[in-house]
Design a protein that fits this description.
Layout: H1 3-21, E1 44-50, H2 57-65, E2 73-79, H3 86-93, E3 96-99, H4 109-121, E4 126-130, E5 133-140, E6 144-147, E7 154-159, E8 162-167, H5 170-184, E9 189-195, E10 199-200, E11 209-211, H6 212-218, H7 227-243
Parallel strand pairs: 1-2, 2-3, 5-9, 6-10, 9-11
Antiparallel strand pairs: 4-5, 6-7, 7-8
Helix pairs in contact: 2-3
């Protein structure tokens, strides 16, 4: 067989392999199966570090602000010492605007602006002053049997015959704890994902997860603490209260 014949045979073999072994990859009518929406859409924050971007923001910000998403969405522009009115322009467009602080030694301006934006994006449902320090509470009101684990990207909810999923909340809690620690200083900060009585975990609770009925016993509230505890954590608590604004859940009570 000539060289050309060997090349032709190899090409034919390759196409036969693709055609019969690779699952008809060329078909364009294949779609992923439809999925039910999650029981609770995760919140999304878009961080935009900006320095002297007044000419570009009118083009980019409207596309971010017009995102169609079922869950909570925030667009946070971090004004990194701009001199052209970047912050005022972003605020007028409808974005949240914060000012970047001084970068730590060795940090570039953009990375520091991203750090500031991530800290600002860490929404916290409740902050509690307890005998153990400050507790970050991520409150979840989900009805049904919940199946989740530390290594699972999604947790499953079975409410009768209805099956839904939601994103593993542990990484989000970790970010919230880090944001609170950045303000609270040396005071101990812990976090828990607290589920109401509507939910149950038939196979046990994952890490950092707690049922609401166990919250009071595991983290005694401030009114039961001795004055020395308030003295230890009081200054940091006041500083933290001054650095945050009430969330949309501030009318609800845990107990």
């Amino acid at each position: 067989m000539t060289v050309l014949g060997w090349v032709a045979a190899a090409s034919l073999a390759a196409w036969l392999w693709l055609a019969f072994v690779q699952g008809r990859f060329w078909r364009t009518d294949q779609r992923l199966p439809a999925r039910r929406p999650p029981a609770q859409w995760p919140s999304v924050a878009m961080i935009v570090p900006a320095r002297d971007e007044a000419a570009m923001l009118p083009v980019t910000l409207p596309t971010l602000l017009a995102q169609d998403y079922a869950g909570p969405v925030r667009v946070i522009v971090v004004d990194d010492a701009s001199g052209d009115g970047t912050g005022d322009l972003a605020r007028a467009a409808g974005a949240e605007v914060i000012a970047a602080d001084e970068p730590p030694p060795g940090w570039t301006g953009k990375l520091n602006a991203l750090r500031c934006g991530i800290a600002a994006a860490a929404d916290v449902d409740f902050l509690l002053l307890t005998s153990l320090g400050i507790l970050v509470v991520d409150l979840r009101d989900i009805r049904g049997n919940i199946f989740g684990g530390d290594q699972m990207s999604e947790w499953t909810v079975m409410d009768g015959a209805r099956r839904t999923t939601f994103m593993n909340p542990q990484s989000g809690l970790y970010d919230r704890i880090a944001a609170v620690k950045a303000v609270a200083g040396d005071v101990p900060v812990e976090g828990r994902i607290v589920f109401t009585r509507n939910g149950k975990f038939p196979k046990g609770l994952p890490k950092w997860t707690l049922m609401i009925d166990s919250l009071r016993s595991e983290f005694p509230p401030v009114e039961r603490m001795v004055s020395s505890t308030v003295e230890r954590f009081g200054d940091a608590w006041k500083q933290l209260k001054g650095a945050v604004s009430p969330s949309e859940m501030n009318q609800q009570r845990l107990f």
